[in-house]
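Here is the promised in-class demo. Please do not try to memorize the tokens; focus on the logic of going from shape to residues.
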């Protein structure tokens, strides 16, 4: 199947789950801002979890399809229409040659949506990923956002059941009132005790200057450092909360730099980073402290939801989702002559 871009939308790019394993040489991870939404779309289509899709911001492109296949739109509600008729998010939709997909734009239910296609978007791998990193102009389609008259191809079409829907209880939680769950550290001791209280008690506004690299906030309440905002640069994980000199947090997102020299007061859980990526500028946000152990339990719960969705999809398909075999398994292990049977699963 081919996708001909008739109109690109304000910011549409090819993204997968990111370019992992190269941060040591200065290459950011990039990838989908809302990975849980992308994964669910791929599960519905029986694709591998990390198959490349189109990430759409605020509104989507107009696309003419050549060839037959299937799509699933996940994430924000951007009012998709197929041949002028509304179609549902979180549902496998049949595509015939000549069909045109359009979007009405964001309607207050999220900021970013994902157009997942059967077989995934087929662009060249760069360091093991198809994700677009626009600052370095690599990955995706020529390292840039999509433009009018671009043509994208898909991989081999998978056998997926048309009409299958992700149940509401298995979809990501986009609750705007829930706080961003945050583990303190690694440099929370570089912040004055009163600053920790301010961080967890303040209602912040998302700044319009936020982007794929970081979500910036606005507040008149300032977090003070013990010895200034600078540290010897160290690694920047997804969700790291930097406190620069002005004393207002920045949460690091998908296109974050690999290292940074500002104090990090905490790290937001990956699921809440994804949720944060769906908030409009001007939205109110609070932080809430959790322990590392609680964070692990949250990740386990997300893994369970994804496995339930795979089981749901398998009921309708003769071929199970390709991602299932990549995310759990079993093996025999011999340690000091003693044999063990070990099961494993990947946590989101």
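The designed amino acids, position by position:
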């Amino acid at each position: 199947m081919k996708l001909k871009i008739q109109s690109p939308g304000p910011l549409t790019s090819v993204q997968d789950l990111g370019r992992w394993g190269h941060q040591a040489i200065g290459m950011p991870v990039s990838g989908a801002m809302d990975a849980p939404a992308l994964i669910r779309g791929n599960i519905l289509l029986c694709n591998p979890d990390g198959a490349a899709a189109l990430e759409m911001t605020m509104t989507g492109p107009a696309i003419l399809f050549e060839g037959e296949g299937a799509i699933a739109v996940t994430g924000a509600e951007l009012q998709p229409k197929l041949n002028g008729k509304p179609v549902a998010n979180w549902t496998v939709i049949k595509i015939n040659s000549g069909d045109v997909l359009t979007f009405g734009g964001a309607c207050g239910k999220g900021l970013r949506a994902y157009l997942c296609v059967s077989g995934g978007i087929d662009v060249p791998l760069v360091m093991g990923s198809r994700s677009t990193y626009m600052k370095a102009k690599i990955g995706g389609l020529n390292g840039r956002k999509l433009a009018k008259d671009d043509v994208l191809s898909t991989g081999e079409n998978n056998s997926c059941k048309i009409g299958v829907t992700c149940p509401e209880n298995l979809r990501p939680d986009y609750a705007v009132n829930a706080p961003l769950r945050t583990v303190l550290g690694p440099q929370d001791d570089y912040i004055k005790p009163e600053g920790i209280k301010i961080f967890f008690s303040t209602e912040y506004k998302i700044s319009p200057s936020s982007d794929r690299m970081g979500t910036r906030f606005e507040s008149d309440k300032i977090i003070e450092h013990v010895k200034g905002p600078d540290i010897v640069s160290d690694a920047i994980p997804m969700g790291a909360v930097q406190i620069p000199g002005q004393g207002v947090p920045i949460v690091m997102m998908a296109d974050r730099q690999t290292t940074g020299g500002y104090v990090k007061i905490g790290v937001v859980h990956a699921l809440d980073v994804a949720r944060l990526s769906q908030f409009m500028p001007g939205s109110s946000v609070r932080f809430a402290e959790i322990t590392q152990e609680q964070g692990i339990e949250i990740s386990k719960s997300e893994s369970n939801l994804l496995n339930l969705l795979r089981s749901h999809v398998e009921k309708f398909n003769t071929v199970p989702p390709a991602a299932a075999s990549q995310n759990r398994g079993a093996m025999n292990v011999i340690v000091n002559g003693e044999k063990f049977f070990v099961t494993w699963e990947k946590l989101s």
